[in-house]
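This section describes the prediction task in plain terms. A model, or a person checking by hand, is given the sequence of a single protein chain and must write out its three-dimensional structure as a string of tokens. No templates, partner chains or ligands are provided. The sample shown here is typical of the held-out split.
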Amino acid sequence: MNKIIAALVAATFSMGAFARSRFGFAPAKEAKPAAAKAEKKAKAKKAKAAKKAASAS
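The expected answer:
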């Protein structure tokens, strides 16, 4: 009898884990390195400064 109960408990946990892994997580997004973000910000800052200098002239 103990073996049957142990098997039912194990099956319950495994079904819960399967359902969780199938529907519980969002799809993984590709990670962007911090250096790429910093470079993009620097380019935007330079472009903004150039635009401001051009309009001031």
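For orientation: The CA atoms of residues 17 and 23 lie 10 Å apart.
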